[in-house]
Amino acid sequence: PHGRVFNFSAGPAVLPLEVLEQAQADLLNWRGSGMSVMEMSHRGKEFQSIIDAAEADLRALLSIPDNYHVLFMQGGASTQFSAIPLNLAADGDAVDYIVTGSWSKKAAGEAKKYAKVNVAATGDNKSIPARDSWNLSADAKYVHYCDNETIQGVEFKGAPDVGGKVLIADMSSNFLSKPVDVSKYGLIYAGAQKNIGPAGVTIVIVRDDLIGNARPITPVMLDYKVQADDKSMYNTPPCWSIYIAGLVFAKMRADGGLAAALANNEKKAKILYDAIAGSNGFYNSPVDPAVRSLMNVPFTIPSNPDLEKEFIAQAAKQGMIQLKGHRSVGGMRASIYNSMPLEGVQQLAAFMQKFAAQHA
Ligand code: PMP
Q1: What DSSP state is assigned to residue 290?
Q2: Are 206 and 227 in contact (CB under 8 A)?
Q3: Which Pfam families does this UniProt record tie to the protein (predicted)?
Q4: Is the pLDDT reported for residue 353 higher than 90?
């Protein structure tokens, strides 16, 4: 409907049609306030009710324990690459990073400016190094990893066991895609623009005892204690992004929460991985089957990489867009976040089969 395509973009990505329609209905006059959410004071009762409801729904979805703060921050997930060491480690403190792809590598690179980074394990961009090979440092302030590598399509299937260490996860590209035991983490962060809303807001879920130790040079906007004390309103928050994310949270609760989201995501991902596996080698997934992402499905045409361009172009002509792999890895990538409809994935799998038959 509405001439909309199936959008396989890695982000910003597809949002639920119902949410967009609700935003459209609210646009000129949000619930009788006489203004749009973009125009209202962030200090007014209207916006306060929006951010309160968003936080409450997010807490309910993830069963976030009371000793965790939910912060609505800005600057994208990339800004958290700096905020984390600035808040959780002193100059010269050891911090551990697990590198399983491009984003965890970037996070580690940024942290090097602020702390003594120990890369405790480095993957081959297709798999996750066995836990017993990780070389964690005894005195690390935290262990950082990326739960889903958006570019490589490598996803952890549960929180890694780091003993009593503070575990930090970048969940930017699989946030709210599955149930998560928040109590296993010291901090979880995620940019919004994949699973939950427009770019502009970054969710930080942080345990209470970890805040309040930011270095004196930490920019005030990145100080978790300031953001927690001011309820994410030290300055003007990204009101519109929070509002849309709130609509997504409410819809997800109504649709059965994270267990339902996981079931949908498993079903959709299986259709694509089965299409690859059933292609007699025409398509290849480079990723270890044990850690294949439910969100980002990279694949190639190994016998004839020149065909990949044609695949992407033909798919686009049929309304399936943004299937090009990340510029750093090439090939194709289908990002199938929570809001990608089942029909989109079915249509892509059917197209893959037809394309293979034409070119095999
Ligand atoms: N981490 C992951 C896993 C990502 O996928 C991305 C964005 N693609 C980022 C971090 C960076 O996010 P942002 O653009 O919000 O800074």
Answers
A1: G
A2: no
A3: Aminotran_5
A4: yes
Selecting among 57, 96, 170, 223, the annotated active-site residue is 170
In which band, very low, low, confident or very high, does the pLDDT at 360 lie, cut at 50, 70 and 90? confident
Any alpha helices (H) in 151-287, and if so which ranges? 224-229, 239-254, 257-277
- Is pLDDT of 327 > 90? no
Nearest residue (by CA) to ligand 1, atom 9, is 77
Respond yes or no on whether the N-terminal peptide bond of residue 219 is cis (omega within 30° of 0): no
User: pLDDT for 133-155, tens place per residue?
Assistant: 999 999 999 999 999 999 999 99
Query: How does pLDDT run across 87-129, given as a tens digit for each residue?
Result: 999 999 999 999 999 999 999 999 999 999 999 999 999 999 9
What the block records as the tokens of 202 is 């970054």
| Closest atom of ligand 1 relative to the 149 alpha carbon | 3
Give CA–CA dist 285/331, Å, rounded: 10
CATH class held by domain 257-359: alpha beta
Task: Measure CA of the first residue to CA of the last residue in the chain; give whole Å.
Answer: 34
* Fold of the CATH domain 17-254: Aspartate Aminotransferase; domain 2 (3.40.640)
- Is residue 96 part of the annotated active site? The answer reads no
Can you give the pLDDT at residue 329?
Answer: 87
Q: Which member of 178, 194, 268, 324 is catalytic? A: 194
Residue 328 clears pLDDT 90, i.e. is over it: no
Is 103 among the catalytic positions?
A: yes
Structure tokens at 90: 């002193």
Which of 263, 261, 241, 300 shows the shortest CA–CA distance to 73? 241
Which stretches does DSSP call E strand in the chain?
6-7, 68-73, 94-99, 116-122, 143-146, 148-149, 154-155, 167-170, 187-191, 202-207, 296-299, 320-321, 332-335
pTM (2 decimals)?
Answer: 0.98
Pairing of strands 202-207, 167-170: unpaired
Is there a catalytic annotation at residue 194? yes
Ranges of each domain in the chain: 17-254, 257-359
